[in-house]
């Protein structure tokens, strides 16, 4: 992939103006893979993390809506809070908000089609599907024992059959015991299974991979996969190649993890500035400068807020209020302000952590379960902010006001046009 970027000085806060006031970069070729290609349509620059782990009785029983209350890892704190209790849908959900569509099944065809239409209508072109590996591997599931492989297959099939313009990128999740050999095997599996589909986002003909908790593998192991070499696990220049984005958490992750591992770029994921260095918008100008100077792609993650109080009652320090959409707008302004060329959204539908932008409705307390709502605003408030921000991203890129990039793509014409430690972030993740 080739991304040619032209940047002016960035302006959106005093801290950021100070950090980047001397930065004027022109004619910078990022990610030095040369290829000819056309301009990427604005909607394909907006990616939303998408979770397929939900079910309800008609699909075989409740999953995730009945999530258990998780214990703290510190025994001294663990005893101070309830844990092990499961929520009881449909009245008492694990989420601080109640879905407009009710507690649904991710395997419902009509539901998937509704999600795809909604994404298209509100400026989201890429669904980043959470995936834990092939179902036959031991430990290949989330904390609630759900494997999403078949569900991913169904989403891709719905895109193919309905002609939806939404495309899929992969979110590789950190199942137990993941090694470089397993990653290579996973990439081989996905490549063989989906090589022929038009439903994938492709950059220079290659799929896009977000790698959650990438720090759990040493940089040297990633380098055997992602830095071109003659070893048996190397994917560069092979059918298993792709655009790989690692997770930036701590201040020095760029030099200590992203660069030596061979990632093409990085993302920040978290929707709370209390979780990591990377999730704090005041750090984004320096991270963007670092990325540009090393030919990496910075994909900041924006989110509406964070509230996992129901499943982690001990994690109040990480909560981030929504402020009637103000928090979400602030994140978007920060991403646009640093000249981001691709923006990821945390999340479309991670209801357990309260990061969803999917429509929610007010609901009276039932069985002791209380819910927040988007009122006095519309249930579609966060989708509307997304649509407006997606349009602004496209406008800025087209005008060159804050950054203009031409991304070379190929393979699919439909794509054109509270803690700074990784341990802390890991402990608040519902993966």
UniProtKB/TrEMBL annotation:
<protein>
    <submittedName>
        <fullName>Uncharacterized protein</fullName>
    </submittedName>
</protein>
<keyword id="KW-0812">Transmembrane</keyword>
<dbReference type="Pfam" id="PF16317">
    <property type="entry name" value="Glyco_hydro_99"/>
</dbReference>
<keyword id="KW-0333">Golgi apparatus</keyword>
<keyword id="KW-1133">Transmembrane helix</keyword>
<keyword id="KW-0378">Hydrolase</keyword>
<keyword id="KW-0735">Signal-anchor</keyword>
<keyword id="KW-0472">Membrane</keyword>
<dbReference type="GO" id="GO:0000139">
    <property type="term" value="C:Golgi membrane"/>
</dbReference>
<dbReference type="GO" id="GO:0004559">
    <property type="term" value="F:alpha-mannosidase activity"/>
</dbReference>
<dbReference type="InterPro" id="IPR026071">
    <property type="entry name" value="Glyco_Hydrolase_99"/>
</dbReference>
<comment type="similarity">
    <text>Belongs to the glycosyl hydrolase 99 family.</text>
</comment>
<feature type="region of interest" description="Disordered">
    <location>
        <begin position="411"/>
        <end position="431"/>
    </location>
</feature>
